[in-house]
Request: fold
Amino acid sequence: MARAVVAKAYGGPEVLQVVDVQVGPPGPGQVLLDVRAIGVNPSDWKQYSGVWGTDPDRLPLRLGHEVAGVVAAVGEDVEGITPGDEVIAYPVTGAYADRLLVRATSVLPKPAGRSWEKAAGLMVTGVTAFHALTATHVGAGDTVLVHGASGGVGSAVVQLAHARGARVLGTASPANHEHLEDLKAVPLAYGPGLEDRVRRAAPHGITAAIDCVGTAEAIETSLALVPDRQRIATVAGHAHATGTGIKLLGAGAGSDPGTEVRRRARAELLRQWDLHHLDVRIGATFHLADAARAHRVGRGGTVDGKIILLP
Ligand SMILES: NC(=O)c1ccc[n+]([C@@H]2O[C@H](COP(=O)([O-])OP(=O)(O)OC[C@H]3O[C@@H](n4cnc5c(N)ncnc54)[C@H](OP(=O)(O)O)[C@@H]3O)[C@@H](O)[C@H]2O)c1
Reply:
């Protein structure tokens, strides 16, 4: 038996409940995890908010896509994974649980001695950032504008772009400018006048832009500044960007899910984390049973850094 958080209905965080779920022994190709930490992402609350539909047949919804934990048992045919191993599992479904069956193909070694919280919060934002940088071909010599640069995805984009040798400018609220400087990015305030501020900070021009917030301002500023639209990508602004020639990344009609790129990205993220080229800023931790409170805080946008649940 395991404890899991599910959405019993569509709505706000009040629909979340802790329930008991059966967790059988691992079958072929499966691994049973004792979960130590769970990454919280905006898609977790979007899933039950109704923005992606309200199909009653999908209820109750299991939530969460990334965890870190200890292997408790492995299926008969699983090789290279042993009980007691400290691992990250991504992608998974139903991560909001204290015990979880996952596919062996989703299991990656957690670097020894590194924090459970950071391990649990590395993958969703990291693979998205890697996909965006790959889709826009960012490399040495580029000057990249990152919208929403202080967020989970944005700060991963900033760090990975810097590691690729690009110069990075990032938008954030003033309270996060010092954080962006720590990540070696030029911080800029978003809001009226953004295009002029970017032109002043990058007089030789912007060669690529990645939108990690989804506002009309982010899309319009990118279109005004980047000559090649194939070098602009959004992970959140599909409503504003459809039909503009910008690359739409992730789930949804007309988007590139990047399944293979994202699968490959996982090993590279572990490598960059190990090299200290990539870090995960932890904003707050909550007990698993407090998932509704964690979602209220996340939706409010008042926490800087990843929100993590601990069973
Ligand atoms: N397509 C995909 O595959 C995919 C994958 C993961 C996430 N996403 C989406 O990407 C978005 C970001 O996710 P996340 O995990 O990075 O969220 P997050 O950690 O909450 O970050 C959001 C950031 O947006 C910034 N922000 C708020 N208002 C802004 C504005 N008007 N202009 C510029 N920045 C603004 C905030 O920065 P300040 O606090 O500094 O204001 C905040 O750090 C979400 O919509 C999420 O659903 C998509």
